[in-house]
Amino acid sequence: MKRDFLSIADLTTAEIQDLFQLARKLKKKQKKGSVFHPLKGQTLAMIFQKPSARTRISFEVGMIQLGGHAIYLTPADIGMGKRESVADVARVMSRYCDGIMARVFAHDILIELAKYASVPVINGLSDLFHPCQVLGDLLTIQEHLGKTEGIKVVFVGDGNNVANSWINAASRLKFSFYLACPKGYDPDEKILKDGQKAGMGEIVALRDPTEAVRNADIIYTDVWASMGQEKEAGKRKKAFKNYQVNEKLVSAAKPNVKVMHCLPAHRGEEISDGVMEGPHSIVFDEAENRLHIQKAIMVQLMS
User: In the CATH hierarchy, which fold is given to the domain comprising 133-286?
Assistant: First the structure.
C-alpha cells in the first residue's frame, strides 16, 4: 500500500530514526560524489500554492540526485480547487507521476490530495504543519550534538506550523520542547494537548522567553508573520517585540547553545543579525539538511 507523509505524527519513532539513518547515508554519498539513482525514471509533481526557494530547490535537486525528475507547478498552472477540483488533480497527477509534493495554504487540501492520489503525497508545507523542515532540523541537531534524546529545544515566537511539527516530533522522540509565545499566538491547542499526552518528552508552553531558554541546548525561531499574514505584520511586530532571539536572550541559555531558524529570516525582527551570523548559529547547516532528509523521505515512499 502507498504511504503518504503529511505530518511527523504519521511516523513511528523507529521510522523517524530510519529516515535519519538513510539521510546520513545519502548525504555521505553526495559529498563523496557517488552516483546513486534509486528513483531513476521517476517523476515528482511539485504543486505550489505558496512560493518557496528552499522547498523548490531542495526537492528538485533531490530528485535529480536520486536519478529522477521534478516538475514545478505554479498556481497558474493548475488553479487547484478553482479551475479544477483537488480530487481530479490528484487522480490525473497519479496517472502521470510517481509522487506528489504539495506546498499549500489549507492542510485539508493535502488530506484530500492523499485521499484521491494513488501515489505518495508529501507535505512540503501547510498552514498546520511543516514536517520536512523539522525532520531536517533534528538531523542537524544529531550532527552537532550527537543526539536528540535528553536535549532541550526552545521555540521562541509564533506558535505556527513549524511549532506544531516540533510538538509532533517531541511526541515521538525523547527530548524536551519548550515554547515561548505571546498570548494569542499559541500553537494548535489539540496538537499541544496530544503531544503532552504522548509522554515521550516534556512539552511546556510559557510566555517568558528568558525563562524558557534557561538550560536550552537549542533556541529556535521563525518569522513573526508567515506567508498569508502580511496584513497582520504591524500588529504582530508589537505583540512579538520582546521575543527577538538576540545576544541577550542567547546568553541566558547554555554557553554552547545552538541557534536555528527555518528561513527566510527577517534580521532585526525575530532574530538579530549578530546572532544569525554568530558562533551559535547553525542556520545554514539546517537549510542544507532539508535536501538530505527529503531525499530520504522520497526514497522511502517512492522506491
Answer: Rossmann fold (3.40.50)
